[in-house]
Amino acid sequence: MKIVVIGSVAAGTSVAAKARRNSEVDEIVVYEKGQDISYSVCGMPYYVGGEVEDLETLIPRDAAWFKKRFNVDIMTGIEVISIDENQQALVLKNLETGELFEDYYDRLVLATGATPRIIAPFDEAYQNVFTMHNMVDTRAIDAYLQHHSVQNVTIFGTGYVGLEMMEQFQKRGLDVTLVQRSAQIMTHFDGDMAYRAEQVIRANGVYVLKSVTAKQVTAQDGVVSAVELSNQTTIQTDLVLLALGVEPQTQLVDHMKIAKGPSGALKVDQQMLTTVPNIYAVGDVVESFSVIDGSPLYRPMGSTANKMGRIAGDSLTGGGLTHRGILGTGIVRLFDTTIAQTGFTEAVARAKGYDVEVLYNIKPGHADYLNGTENVIKAIAGRQTGKLLGVQIIGKDGVDKRIDVFVTAITLGAKVADLFHLDLAYQPLYATTKDPVLYTGMALDNALHGRTLLPPAELEQRLAEGERFQILDVRSKQQYADEHVEHAINMPLAEIRDRFTELDMDIPTVTYCNKGVTANAAQNLLLNLGFKSVYNLSGGFKNYQVVKAYLNDK
Fold first, then answer.
1. 420 and 369 assigned to the same domain
2. pLDDT tens-place string over residues 68-95
3. Fewer CB in a 10 Å sphere around the end CB: N or C, the chain?
4. Which residue stretches, if any, does this entry annotate as coiled coil (predicted)?
5. What φ, ψ does residue 129 adopt, rounded to 5°?
6. Does 184 share its domain with 232?
């Protein structure tokens, strides 16, 4: 059998390597129109900022290595011009010589990836307008910075690539402006969590513009010097980076009757087979599906591409691996802070019709007496199933390890009650005795069993709609005097047993403290005393202040 793979970055080389591990008899050929293969796309921004000193360390293997190790022929500088799915034939072009030639396949794998999205007015050739998608882009940006006077950089888009490059440009001593079309940055997060990230970005000296797009540019001799935005403002710039996401490269198969998903990426089955016989697809050209509900999900990531490649290589050679979907997990460093997410956001879960419980958990990543710093965890659970649906975390302390625990829990269908029973590693340098993961599970399970949480945004909305609450501030008198929720009554926890008759037991009551723990004790007490409906303001006054600022900023 002859296996032909088109594309040789993360997914394509994984296909070839796994297929060869399974079979020594099949012929395996990989065609790549570029010159670089099997490189670390996700590491490229860190070369621009100097954290990776040698770009070649991101390209650990070349075609000769693959030939020697796997007996796989990787042909670089070769572009596939067309595919005849009926004859199972290819027309190819040698980009160095211009020569056209033909080849055939028994099984074809599309690992063509995606292409950066380009918008007007940048859809012309400008010397200082770049994307960050491959090694060619990386070398071009670095060369331009070395040979031209650059101080002001403008980045359009606030996805992971845009934010990584923001940080790395600033490490290089440059002034950075972020421009976002929508009203919030980081649209894979809930608005209130993205707002927290935005405050970190602004605090580090980055200028952020939202709800605007580029209208026209000022350019001379192919160099952009200014960009006029849709709000009529003009920003001066020495370099423009377009980080607006990607579009799957399906052009080679658009003439076929091949199924695509809502994203425009190719549909595949669990073996990575498309709807056209003998044609498989992997990586960024493919639409995946949600582990939670099976709905289509396009979230191109290098980790997913590698996984898909391995599955396809196994399937091609008689193996039993299958693709089980993704959660859309992502993580990014923002200077000294990390923000990560997995699964559904609150907005997505509600839009899908889930009845959700929302917890804001503010806890240090390790013991505060050893300088542990607070993380904000926003966790969403389904009230009907008790299962965890999604988590977002922002902080400086162990964000990566905790998001991965939550990923594991969601993937394995854990209920929130299960989180509390995890035997996680504890030592005060690395965790607290009741780890934030355990506390998240405990608090959500309590909420699902009568200790209801009320997110600050929901409280504000219900108050605006005229709903009546009695709001109880259970902090100290001094803390209340310094600042409190409007119309709240101050009744410290220690005084409630003596003073609860001052309250109306039939009116829905909201308790709050600084972060939610003391308010939970007050909630328990009031319910035990016979109050009919008592909510705990999720995340306490600390979270309320941030969410209210976010709502005012919208």
1. yes
2. 999 999 999 999 999 999 999 999 999 9
3. C
4. none
5. -115, 125
6. yes
